[in-house]
From TrEMBL:
GO terms for cellular component: plasma membrane. Residues 43-222 form the AAA+ ATPase domain. GO terms for biological process: double-strand break repair; iron ion transport. The keyword Transport applies. InterPro entries: AAA+_ATPase (IPR003593), ATPase_AAA_core (IPR003959), P-loop_NTPase (IPR027417), Rad50/SbcC_AAA (IPR038729), Siderophore_ABC-ATPase (IPR051535). This is Predicted ATPase. GO terms for molecular function: ATP hydrolysis activity. It comes from the Bacteria. It comes from Actinoplanes derwentensis. Transmembrane segments: none annotated. It is a peripheral membrane protein. The keyword Transcription regulation does not apply. Keywords: Cell membrane, Ion transport, Iron, Iron transport, Membrane, Transport.
Length: 247
């Protein structure tokens, strides 16, 4: 099965019926866009969430993670450490549309910002054995992330990843794409917020992009702003920068 194959997803869609308040996170354009757009569907085993810095990807993915029962700071559903109290309340208001009779066997929520705390929790719980055998604190950021994907992620899992490329080289991103394909083959589902043109190329994935006004639209790979801009930049970096600096 490829990442694009039709299959009943664990989470088929997410919905927010009304905006329950003002201020963060309810005042964000993306939250209003979610209400206005109705159900946001995840029709394929891999859904990629794109959008500029500050467009609301992390807020949305964290809300979905909380609604799915994960610790807001990351980890598996059995992690319950807390180092800060700034999580958004969005998760409590989201409705997840699940497939009856299909429950993930395992799962992981990765927040790029708090992976250090997840690593500390892995050490505290004494479960490094399930993560490749070495404490994540004794591995590089990218090595420990690939340990996680290769050893702790398993078949039939639900994985919510927020900018996994923060840890990874281009080769690391390609290794992650291969691992994702394997896990999809064995019944896993992924929701990934990313700026990486490499990860955005995941075969068969649905790409949802948050526009400046907050609308969340399904787009083709070539239309994603991160892809188009990277392509324009790489075509002639010198000229691109000259143009940018003269503006
Ligand atoms: N705890 C918070 N309190 C108030 N505002 C917040 C909080 N967290 C995020 N925001 C604001 O909400 C908006 C969306 O932030 P979010 O982190 O979801 O964006 P993002 O799309 O993940 O960005 P990036 O690509 O930089 O990771 C931003 O304008 C941000 O400043
Ligand atoms: Mg973010």
């Amino acid at each position: 099965m490829t990442p694009g194959s039709v299959r009943e997803m664990f989470i088929r869609a997410v919905r927010l019926d009304a905006v329950p308040g003002d201020g963060y996170p309810f005042g964000l354009p993306v939250v209003r866009g979610l209400v206005a757009g109705g159900e946001l569907r995840f029709p394929t085993a891999v859904t990629l969430l794109a959008g500029d810095n500050g467009s609301g990807k992390s807020t949305l993915i964290e809300g979905i993670a909380v609604a799915a029962g994960f610790n807001p700071e990351g980890g598996t559903t059995s992690f319950n450490f807390a180092t800060r109290a700034s999580e958004s309340e969005l998760g409590g208001h989201l409705t997840l549309v699940r497939t009856a009779g299909r429950k993930p066997r395992t799962g992981f929520f990765l927040r790029a910002e708090s992976y250090y705390n997840v690593a500390t929790e892995i050490e505290r719980l004494g479960v490094a054995g399930s993560y490749g055998g070495v404490s994540p604190h004794q591995r590089s950021h990218g090595e420990s992330f690939l340990d996680l994907a290769n050893h702790r992620f398993g078949a039939g899992g639900l994985y919510l990843l927020d900018e996994p490329e923060a840890a990874l080289s281009v080769q690391g991103c390609l290794a992650l794409l291969l691992r994702i394909a394997e896990l999809v083959e064995t019944g896993s589902q992924f929701l990934i917020a990313t700026h990486s043109p490499v990860l955005l190329a995941c075969p068969g994935a649905t790409i949802l992009e948050i526009a400046a006004g907050g609308a969340i639209e399904e787009v083709a790979y070539d239309q994603v702003e991160a892809v188009a801009m990277t392509r324009a930049f790489l075509a002639d970096p010198g000229r691109f920068l000259e143009h940018l600096m003269s503006d």
